[in-house]
Amino acid sequence: MTNKIKQAWSEGKAVINGWLAIPSGFSAEVLAQCGFHSVTVDLQHGVQDYQSMVQCFQAMQAHPVVPMVRVPWNEPGIVGKVLDAGAYGVICPMINTAAEAAALVSYALYPPKGARSNGPIRAAMYGEATNYQKTANDEILIIPMIETKQAIENLDAILDVPGISGVYVGPSDLGFSYGLIPILDREEPMILEIYEKILAACAKRKIYAGIHCGTAAYAARAIKMGFRLVTISNDSGLMAVAAKAAIKQVQTEAAGKL
């Protein structure tokens, strides 16, 4: 197994990430053909469950996208289970301390570096010693979400945890924790300064930062800032934006006929 996100990062490139909230293999198949470098199934705030996640992975498998998952919480059962299903990366919400980050690493890595149980039911032959077990610890992405004031206060300690591949900024919860309205594409100087702090701290350790964006324009801006993985909305959000734009165009061009 070769993780193409890690390969892109090693070449100094950024990655555009898709996001699946809709529990549909067909939706996943469509998104996987749109040019994203990776696609993440959202088990936290999407309406996905484990079975729909597997269907999304199966639908995406014919296309050159890296499958990842945002797990619902930092818990060993689900972390191991999504990896066993074939996820190449785990994004984990609400990591606020170094101890929580270390626990995430232990859940995601095989011994001796971690405590993940052997049984990669889709990632490799179940219960068999294959090349997957030899390379998984080196190829899996372990990405804690930085999305609270507490996490920012503990940023250096979190990033110093061995095994962390990078971090993923959740702008809505991050702003929320500082008493701001929970939105994605933030402009507050205080939050932008926090972004710069995160980017500098990651660069110092030669790891990478990702961020969830609401629009393509902000995603491009985030890449210019130094983020190396950017997500543009999600499948349901992109569908709604495109549908509203199409309806508005028809209403404008067929004015007086509706």
Describe this structure in words.
The protein is built from twelve helices and eight strands. By secondary structure, the chain is α/β, with parallel strands linked by helices. The chain has one domain (4-253): TIM Barrel. Strands 1-2-3-4-5-6-7-8 form an eight-stranded parallel β-barrel, surrounded by eight helices. α2 (25-32) runs parallel beside α3 (50-60). The protein is globular and about 70 Å long.
Distance between the termini: 55 Å
Based on DSSP secondary structure assignment, what is the total number of beta strands? 8
Number of domains: 1
Strand order of the largest sheet: 1-2-3-4-5-6-7-8
Helix content: 40-55%
What layout of secondary structure does this protein have?
Layout: H1 4-10, E1 15-20, H2 25-32, E2 38-42, H3 50-60, E3 66-70, H4 76-84, E4 89-92, H5 98-108, H6 131-139, E5 141-146, H7 149-153, H8 155-159, E6 166-169, H9 171-177, H10 189-205, E7 208-213, H11 216-225, E8 229-232, H12 235-253
Helix pairs in contact: 2-3, 4-5
List keywords for this structure.
TIM Barrel; alpha/beta; eight-stranded parallel barrel; 258 residues; 12 helices
Task: Give the structure's gist in a few sentences.
This protein has 258 residues and is α/β, with parallel strands linked by helices.
